[in-house]
TrEMBL record:
The lineage of its organism: Eukaryota, Metazoa, Chordata, Craniata, Vertebrata. Keywords: Coiled coil, Intermediate filament. SUPFAM superfamilies: Intermediate filament protein, coiled coil region, Tropomyosin. This is Keratin, type I cytoskeletal 19-like isoform X2. One of its GO terms (molecular function) is structural molecule activity. It comes from Xenopus laevis (African clawed frog). GO terms for cellular component: intermediate filament. One of its GO terms (biological process) is intermediate filament organization. Residues 97-173, 209-240, 302-368 form a coiled coil. Residues 93-404 form the IF rod domain. The keyword Coiled coil applies.
Length: 438
């Protein structure tokens, strides 16, 4: 049922769209005016029935919608006319009182509906509180898990920093090894060039020794040829001597002995050969010594260079092994690093999903609280309207009591006052409950 403020010139009162409540001669109005005590008793019974019925009803989310449909108020904005107290003329008091009695009955019905919706909301809030109490939001466990994960993250950050330092150190050592390898390679190239030069000098010396050996063989052959010719001459002379055996007896001086001459000749040749050998022997010895000295002088750096080459080969092999070990270590560290990054990315994704779910729940609760605050604003507005109407009703009741004191006596006054106090107490208690629930 919709209400709007009246702007008539005769007096300001609230008119309803329902024609039943606007007719002054309706039975409901007559019942309320003639017997207010009976009206109070019936209202109490009606409220008791509502309370007893609401104890057995379940939660219905459409309670607020019913309230909005049944209790929709127009004229809230600033463009509507303000509420004004009614004119308290004696001619209009009876009609106004009947209208207010009808409105009071409608308001009591609305109050019962509001009370029922408030009970629905109370039960709904209790159920939500029980659900939230059952679903405990104790974040101490999460805090412990988060603290442990933070400590693990810090430890892994320290490990990653150490690994990065180790990787940098290995890179620096690898660069140093590369520079050393380059220097050693250049030294090896220089040494190989020197070895080639030494080999060429050794080949030249070998050729000279071969030439000297050939000359020595030639001299030995000449000596053997001379000895052979000498033997042949001796043999020829002996043959000639054996063929020519002539005995000549001459009285002359004794002739020289041929054997003695041959022996002297042999001795003379021996002296010549010995002198030639003696002359050539120191030259050959000096040549051999010179060649041996040159060979030894050439072999010493060659041996030292061979030793250096072997040492360099060993160092290069060791460095290659160390470099391979460092590459393997780097690969294993990178694999562990990628694995830890993937694990922490998965953990971070899980935490982000949990946070997003919690944010969605928080947004839902905020929306519910906003809706409840809006409903509370509506209830506050209804409370203000009820207070204003109760005030006007009190003024009318006071005027009616003054009028009835003169006509009916103090009994009607006391009953009307009791009815008025009962209605005010019931309306205030219901509005306070609705505001407390909102």
């Amino acid at each position: 049922m919709y209400y709007r403020p009246c702007t008539q010139s005769s007096g300001c009162c609230w008119h309803a769209k329902n024609a039943r409540h606007l007719q002054p001669g309706s039975p409901a109005q007559a019942k309320v005016i003639k017997d207010p005590e009976h009206t109070g008793q019936s209202l109490k019974a009606k409220q008791g029935n509502h309370i007893a019925g609401n104890r057995e009803t379940r939660l219905s989310p459409s309670g607020l919608d019913i309230k909005k449909r049944r209790c929709r108020i127009t004229g809230i904005g600033p463009s509507r006319d303000k509420w004004q107290p009614p004119d308290l003329c004696p001619l209009r008091q009876k009609e106004t009182l009947e209208d207010l009695n009808n409105r009071l009955a409608a308001y009591l019905e609305k109050v019962s509906l509001l009370e029922e919706s408030n009970r629905h909301f109370e039960r709904k809030i209790q159920d939500l509180c029980e659900k939230r109490a059952n679903v405990s939001h104790d974040t101490s466990q999460y805090k412990k898990v988060i603290a442990e994960m933070e400590t693990q993250i810090n430890k892994l950050k320290m490990k990653n920093a150490e690994l990065s330092l180790e990787v940098d150190n290995t890179k620096l050592t690898a660069d140093n090894f590369k520079s050393k390898y380059k220097t050693e390679l250049s030294l090896l190239q220089f040494i190989t060039a020197d070895i080639k030069e030494v080999k060429t000098t050794g080949s030249h010396l070998q050729m000279e020794t071969d030439c000297l050996k050939v000359e020595l063989q030639m001299l030995n052959e000449e000596l053997s040829c001379l000895k052979k010719d000498h033997q042949e001459d001796i043999v020829k002379l002996q043959e000639d001597q054996s063929k020519c055996q002539v005995k000549v007896e001459v009285n002359s001086q004794p002739a020289n002995d041929l054997t003695k001459a041959l022996e002297e000749m042999r001795e003379h040749y021996k002296v010549i050969v010995w002198s030639s050998n003696k002359k050539t022997e120191p030259w050959l010895v000096s040549k051999f010594r010179q060649c041996n000295y040159q060979n030894t002088m050439a072999l010493e750096p060659l041996q030292t260079q061979k030793r250096e080459v072997t040492l360099l080969r060993r160092t290069t092999q060791n460095l290659e092994a160390e470099l391979e070990n460092l590459h393997n270590l780097k690969a294993s560290r990178m694999a562990t690093l990628t694995e830890t990054e993937q694990n922490y990315a998965a953990q971070l994704q899980r935490m982000q999903n949990i946070i997003s779910r919690r944010e969605d729940e928080l947004a839902k609760t905020r929306a519910e609280f906003k809706q409840m605050s809006a409903d509370g604003g509506i209830l506050h507005y209804l409370k203000d309207l009820l207070e204003m109407e109760i005030k006007t009703y009190g003024q009318l009741m006071d005027a009616e009591e003054i009028r009835m004191d003169t006509s009916n006596g103090p009994l009607r006054t006391s009953t009307s006052k009791q009815m008025y106090m009962f209605l005010i107490s019931e309306a205030m208690s219901i509005t306070c409950k609705s505001l407390f629930i909102s």
